[in-house]
Structure formats: structure tokens, C-alpha cells
Design brief:
By secondary structure, the chain is an alpha+beta fold. It has 2 domains: 12-55 and 102-145, Roll (PH-domain like); 59-98. The chain has helices at residues 59-78, 84-101, 124-145; strands at residues 12-16, 19-22, 25-33, 36-43, 47-55, 103-110, 114-119. A hairpin with a 3-residue loop joins strand 6 (103-110) and strand 7. Helix 1 (59-78) runs antiparallel to helix 2. It is elongated, with a radius of gyration of 23 Å.
Length: 146
């Protein structure tokens, strides 16, 4: 984890991997492959909302249902239970793939941009703490502007 550069009068409030919250901004520096880096920086005054959600690939569950139904129909038509085992194995793999692709995502929306951070290595408690700290920093920034 690198220590982010901040301007004078600005201090780091919280950092989770490459997501940094300072007294003035939220910044995400991420590698997008082939040596390219993308930096998204949003001033606290521009943050409009935060959301913690989950993403998954539901197509794996659909494929599971199709495979199970097909294997039941084939075993019933042919009166051979041998069609059930491959269907169950494939269905089990599809459920495992669904579970492996399910994960959380933190979305910080702003007036013109958004930060989307999948959190695989980070606990939900750490993400909630980040959101709470961001909301507190945002309300302090609003009170200074008023």
C-alpha cells in the first residue's frame, strides 16, 4: 500500500488499498492492465451518494436449472438414471461458479463521475467504516462552506 500524495492543508483520513479518503477528496488509483493506470479523484463537495451493493452472474443459476431439468427429462424418457449424474455434476459446477463470481461493490457517485470498487479482499465492516467516514467528512466540508 503506497502513501498517497496530498496537497498542503489536506490529510489522509482513511485508506483501503488504493482507495483514499482525504479531508478534501476521494481518490482511486487502479491498474487497468498492460501497465496502464487510471486515477479517479472526486472532491468531497461533488459526492452525491454512496452505495454498497452486490454483483453476481445469475446466468450460472439459469444454466443450472436448464441442465437439471434436461437431465431429469432425459432420464425419464430413457428410463435410465445414468443421465442424472452428469447433470448433477454440471449443475454443481455452475453453482460453484455462481458463488465464486458473487462479490460486493462500493459505488461512490458524484455529479460527473463515479468510483466503482469491487471489494473482494476487504471486509464489509471496513467498507462500511469508509462510507461512514466519507459521510462525516462530507458533512464537515458542507458546514465549512456554509
Amino acid at each position: 500500500m503506497t502513501v498517497p500524495q496530498v496537497s498542503s492543508g489536506e490529510k489522509v483520513l482513511l485508506q483501503i488499498h488504493e482507495l483514499v479518503l482525504t479531508t478534501h477528496r476521494v481518490r482511486l488509483k487502479e491498474s487497468i492492465g498492460w501497465g496502464n493506470i487510471e486515477l479517479t479523484s472526486i472532491m468531497l463537495g461533488e459526492v452525491t451518494s454512496c452505495r454498497i451493493g452486490h454483483r453476481s452472474k445469475a446466468i450460472f443459476l439459469v444454466i443450472t436449472a436448464i441442465v437439471l431439468i434436461a437431465s431429469l427429462i432425459l432420464s425419464g424418457i430413457n428410463q435410465n438414471a445414468g443421465y442424472l449424474l452428469p447433470g448433477l455434476v454440471i449443475a454443481g459446477l455452475m453453482v460453484a461458479m455462481y458463488c465464486a463470481t458473487r462479490g460486493g461493490i462500493l459505488i461512490i457517485n458524484a455529479t460527473r463521475d463515479a468510483i466503482r470498487l469491487p471489494f473482494i479482499r476487504t471486509s464489509l465492516m471496513e467498507i462500511e467504516k469508509f462510507v461512514d467516514t466519507l459521510e462525516a467528512a462530507r458533512s464537515r466540508a458542507d458546514s465549512f462552506e456554509s
